[in-house]
Design a protein that fits this description.
heterodimer, A: about 75% helix, B: about 110 residues, mainly alpha, 4 helices, elongated, disordered N terminus, transmembrane helix (chain A), Monovalent cation/H(+) antiporter subunit G (chain A)
C-alpha cells in the first residue's frame, strides 16, 4: 500500500458510505420527494468520491482521463435526471407528504 | 506510434497492490448489495417515479461497480463500458420521465 493508495482507500470507503446513505434513504424515507432528495445528493457524492478514488491511483493516464470524464458526467447528469423526475411527478399531480406522515408509512402517498 | 498502440490495446503499466485490489472488490460487492436492496423500492414503489428513481440509482451503482472491478483486476478496457453505461442511464431516466407525463416539457 503506497500513500496514494491509502488516500484512494479513504475516498472509496467514504463513497461507499454515501452509497449506503442513498440506499437507506430511498428504501426508508416516506414520499417520492424525500426519496428524490436522498437519491440526488447522496448518490451523486458517493459515485463521484468512489470514481475520484480510483482515478487518483491511476495517475495521469488515458484511463484516468476516462474516469474523470465519467466523474464529471455523473456529477452533471445525476441531479439533472432527479430534477426531470421531480418535474414529471409534479406535472402528474403527485403532492408532497404532509406533517402527519410517519417514517416507513405508505399513507403519505396520494 | 508503439505507445499509442499499447494505450489502445493493453492499458497503462499501473498495477495496484493486492490489498488495494481487495478493498476495491469489497467496495464493488457493497455497491452490488445496495443495488439488490434498491430492487425493493423498484417492486414496491407506489408511483412510477419511485421506480424510476430507484432504477436510476441502480444504474449509477452499476457504473461504479464496473469501474471498480476494472481497476481492481487491471482490465482497463471495461472503463469504456462504464462510460457507455453512464450515458445510457441518463438517456433512460430522461426518456422515461418524459414518457410518463405524455411528452410534456420536462426539461
Amino acid at each position: 500500500m503506497t500513500p496514494i493508495e491509502i488516500l484512494a482507500t479513504v475516498f472509496v470507503v467514504v463513497g461507499t458510505f454515501f452509497g449506503f446513505v442513498a440506499t437507506v434513504g430511498i428504501v426508508r424515507l416516506p414520499g417520492l420527494y424525500a426519496r428524490l432528495h436522498a437519491a440526488s445528493k447522496s448518490d451523486t457524492l458517493g459515485s463521484v468520491l468512489s470514481l475520484a478514488g480510483i482515478a487518483l491511483v491511476l495517475g495521469v493516464t488515458t484511463e484516468s482521463l476516462k474516469l474523470v470524464f465519467l466523474l464529471v458526467f455523473l456529477f452533471v447528469t445525476s441531479p439533472t435526471a432527479a430534477h426531470a423526475i421531480a418535474r414529471a411527478a409534479k406535472e402528474e399531480g403527485i403532492e408532497p407528504i404532509g406533517e402527519d406522515a410517519r417514517l416507513g408509512d405508505e399513507e403519505g402517498e396520494p | 506510434m508503439t505507445s499509442v498502440l499499447l494505450a489502445a490495446s493493453g492499458g497503462p503499466e499501473v498495477t495496484v497492490s493486492e490489498t488495494f485490489s481487495l478493498i476495491l472488490l469489497a467496495a464493488a460487492a457493497a455497491f452490488t448489495l445496495f443495488a439488490v436492496v434498491l430492487l425493493y423500492r423498484v417492486v414496491q414503489g407506489p408511483t412510477t417515479q419511485d421506480r424510476i428513481v430507484a432504477i436510476n440509482v441502480v444504474g449509477t451503482n452499476t457504473v461504479i461497480v464496473i469501474a471498480l472491478v476494472s481497476v481492481a483486476l487491471g482490465e482497463y478496457g471495461y472503463l469504456d463500458v462504464a462510460l457507455v453505461y453512464g450515458l445510457l442511464n441518463f438517456v433512460m431516466s430522461i426518456a422515461v420521465s418524459k414518457i410518463t407525463v405524455e411528452w410534456g416539457g420536462v426539461l
